[in-house]
Design a protein that fits this description.
22 helices, 6-stranded mixed β-sheet, about 650 residues, alpha/beta
């Protein structure tokens, strides 16, 4: 169907005026100015009589001179709707070039050497430049008039911007030319009753739903845009619940560096996700030290296609490393991360290797071929219920696989191995957590043996522990999101279950920081912030999706799964950790193991796992890690 607005929008708002048209306009303007000058001189100075053929020659010279000036200064490339004061100098220089060429033509081709020539050229220059400026101002006015006459219809959504800070003001300016959003004011929280601090700035107080509802209705607003994630989280328990309960769309703007030509594309302003509300203030890390630590080195990442491994790769490629070797057994995710990184970092050698940490010969090939100096070991099985049902595979990947990687680091002289562990290794209650603790024991005892001179090698071993990461593959948030899309129910194991959460980029930044500050043989734990009640998380996700809990989407409790805890251990308290110079990172106090005992235990576990001797294997795990007490599991009878 023919839509007149779409035609105007396409050609008046979105398309640039063709540069050839601008060039023709400039030539015509210049020719008109010169003809006015010639006619004016002929009228003002009676002694001068300019014949027609001279006028024609002057016109031709003007066209040539203007073409030279326009092409030299590229004034025809100046976009009308984006013209600024800074473009004036280009018009000035283009005018000067025109007059210089005209002077040369007048003296050489037309043999005109009158003392009036400088005055004529000066008058022509002033007139040409003035008409250039006037014409461009007129173009901008016409463009804005046309644009606002169409945008002023009900094609834009009325929106509030949250806050009155510089970021909020900047967002208002960036949305000024938006064909999608019309900013009708600013809104912010005020602890006490406050008058308006300025035009279109509205305050609200706690428990002022009626006031807020009236404000949104009177201003015709169904959308609020937050200028950044920090302000969004400030209102997670106040304005956000009001908006979700009243079907007010909640959007968050991208950082300023994602704006294009000062404007924000509609796709960049996105709806709020639960990860935005659970995230914390940005962690400050010493980027210079981190870059110095990894710059110019070959880095190997195992589990490179996973949630943590892929984010480690994304951050590492920005540190000036020499080569990135990615190792994983998941073909399609490996293919995807390879394409993503190669598109952005074409000059960096990126080597994707499909392999399994359970295969020493494959690891031998990787280490001997590429000689990695730094190894990030993120390959692991992580899902608690699944590993409770498949304990032998958990041991082979998480324990034996970690041993293989650590041994290859020693054999091939890697400078550092950073192992990614988990909070579930603290007083483990399930197979997965215990396997990660066993991997920690082997790696730390090996590092200690090297430091004591009992094992030859130079590799520093660093272990990092943290809790659940937001949005990781197979985690609770993607699962809830899928259930909400399907219409529910959203399944939660227990009404009181809580978990600690951290964003994937945040976790990876802390891993980098820990690797940089470590002297080796340390287990670093991260401050996970406040624990989150999972049922509250489910409720908030349902509300953010625009549904009512219980009415539209039901929450169903299914019972704790095998090996699952109600509450995760607090990683970074003062009783079980030592502080570092980073407020978010502490060193775990753990019992040390003799390397020979650890190596013997791992080898015996490997044999039992290969023979699928499950009971004997789990018994041995509990002997090596006496704090391993199974919960809600058949293995509890072995405690």
């Amino acid at each position: 169907m023919f839509n007149f607005y779409d035609i105007i929008k396409k050609y008046a708002f979105e398309q640039y005026v063709h540069s050839g048209v601008i060039a023709m306009i400039d030539i015509l303007i210049s020719l008109i100015a010169t003809m006015i000058t010639v006619v004016g001189v002929d009228a003002i100075v009676p002694s001068i009589s300019i014949p027609l053929h001279i006028v024609i020659n002057v016109a031709l010279c003007t066209i040539v001179a203007t073409i030279i000036g326009v092409l030299t200064m590229r004034t025809h490339r100046i976009i009308i709707r984006h013209s600024t004061i800074g473009d004036i100098w280009k018009l000035v220089v283009a005018t000067i070039i025109k007059e210089a060429v005209l002077c040369i033509c007048a003296v050489t081709l037309l043999n005109y050497t009158s003392t009036l020539l400088p005055i004529i050229l000066l008058f022509d220059a002033l007139l040409t430049f003035s008409i250039f400026i006037i014409t461009r101002i007129a173009m901008v006015i016409v463009y804005d008039t046309i644009k606002h006459s169409f945008v002023a219809t009900d094609l834009r959504s009325n929106v509030f911007i949250y806050g009155s800070s510089d970021k909020s003001t900047a967002l208002r300016l960036r949305l000024d030319n938006s064909p999608h959003y019309k900013v009708v004011g600013f809104i912010q929280y005020a602890a006490s009753s406050a008058n308006l601090a300025g035009q279109n700035l509205y305050h609200f107080k706690d428990k002022s739903d009626e006031q807020l509802e009236t404000l949104f209705v009177n201003r015709g607003v169904k959308t609020i845009i937050f200028p950044n994630y920090d302000t969004l989280r400030e209102e997670s328990e106040r304005l956000i619940p009001f908006c979700t309960s009243h079907n007010i769309k909640i959007l968050v703007a991208p950082p300023i560096d994602e704006a294009i030509d000062g404007n924000i594309p509609q796709s960049a302003i996105r709806e709020v996700k639960i990860e935005d509300l659970l995230g914390r203030d940005e962690i400050k890390i010493s980027m210079k030290e981190i870059i110095d630590n990894f710059s110019g080195k070959t880095v190997l990442v195992t589990g490179a296609a996973g949630s943590i491994g892929s984010e480690l790769c994304r951050q590492l490629v920005t540190f000036g490393i020499k080569k990135l070797v990615m190792f994983d057994n998941a073909e399609t995710p490996m293919h995807n991360i390879r394409l993503e990184l190669e598109d952005k970092y074409k000059e960096l050698p990126i080597v994707p290797i499909v392999g399994d940490v359970r295969q020493p010969n494959r690891l031998e090939f990787v280490f001997s071929s590429h000689k990695p100096q730094v190894v990030f070991h993120a390959a692991a099985y992580k899902h608690v219920p699944l590993m409770e049902e498949n304990p032998c595979e958990a041991v082979l990947v998480n324990v034996y696989g970690s041993r293989n990687v650590a041994d290859m680091c020693i054999k091939h002289g890697a400078e550092m191995m950073v192992m990614i562990s988990t909070d579930k290794a603290v007083n483990p209650t399930n197979i997965m957590g215990c396997t990660k603790r066993l991997a920690e024991i082997y790696v730390q005892s090996l590092g200690t043996a090297i430091a004591d001179g009992r094992v030859n090698g130079k590799t520093k071993f660093v272990t990092t522990r943290f809790g659940n990461v937001l949005g990781s593959n197979g985690s609770v948030i993607p699962r809830f999101r899928e259930q909400i899309i399907a219409g529910g129910p959203v399944t939660v194991t227990h009404p009181d279950i809580t978990r600690f959460f951290m964003t994937i980029p945040e976790a990876c930044r802390l891993v980098m920081e820990a690797a940089t500050m470590s002297g080796g043989n340390q287990i670093f734990v991260f401050d996970m912030g406040e624990s989150v009640k999972i049922v509250k998380l489910a409720e908030r996700m349902i509300e953010l999706a625009g549904f009512k809990v219980g009415r539209d989407i039901e929450i169903k409790f299914t019972g704790l799964r095998p090996g699952e805890k109600l509450y995760e251990e607090v990683l970074s308290n003062t009783e079980n950790t030592i502080e570092t110079n980073h407020a978010k990172i502490r060193i775990a106090k753990v019992r040390e193991y003799d390397y020979n005992d650890a190596a013997e235990g791992v080898e015996r576990l490997r044999e039992l796992a290969y023979d699928v001797q499950i009971i004997d294997m789990v018994k041995l795990m509990k002997q090596i890690v006496p704090e391993f007490k199974s919960q809600n599991s058949d293995f509890a009878k072995l405690d």
